[in-house]
Structures are given as structure tokens and as C-alpha cells.
UniProtKB/TrEMBL annotation:
Key word ATP-binding present: no
Membrane topology: Single-pass membrane protein
UniProt feature coiled coil, ranges: none
All copies of domain Phage shock protein PspC N-terminal, residue ranges: 14-66
Chain segments annotated as transmembrane: 41-64
Domain of life of the source: Bacteria
Name this polypeptide is given: Phage shock protein PspC N-terminal domain-containing protein
Length: 80
């Protein structure tokens, strides 16, 4: 499992430090140089799709490393 999480850490995408919820919108906006408000609006609009938007956000939240390289899923799995 460490190889999987190390490959996630090698991606240039990180959850943003200025977060409202999980930091996913801030990380995406920072990576691509977009306005964070527009990314948040796009994410909220994606939540109107049945289950797809919320599931994608939760998946991104638990898999995208934070600024300090911690991955939520890896931390959860270490507890078991």
C-alpha cells in the first residue's frame, strides 16, 4: 500500500491551505491558476448530479495529499 500512497504524493496536486471544507477546490484552483470561487461553484454544480459530484469530492478529499503530504485514507488505514 505504501507504493500507492507514494505515487499519490508524487502528483503535483495538493489540497489547498485556504479551505472551506476539505481543501479540494483550493488545491485544484491553485494547481491550474484558476479562481477558487469558480472552482467551488463548479463543484457545487456537480453536486446536483445524482451521487457523482459528492462521491468524486469525497474520493478526492481522501486521496489527494495535503500541503504536509498527509493522505487521509492512509492515516485511516494505519489505525486498523
Amino acid at each position: 500500500m505504501d507504493a500507492f500512497f507514494n505515487s499519490l504524493r508524487s502528483m503535483p496536486l495538493r489540497r489547498g491551505p485556504g479551505r472551506l471544507a476539505g481543501g479540494v477546490a483550493g488545491g485544484i484552483a491553485y494547481k491550474f491558476g484558476w479562481d477558487v470561487t469558480l472552482v467551488r461553484i463548479a463543484l457545487l454544480l456537480s453536486f446536483l448530479l445524482p451521487v457523482m459530484g459528492i462521491a468524486a469530492y469525497i474520493l478526492a478529499w481522501i486521496l489527494i495529499p495535503a500541503q504536509d503530504n498527509t493522505i487521509i485514507l492512509q492515516n485511516w488505514l494505519r489505525k486498523f
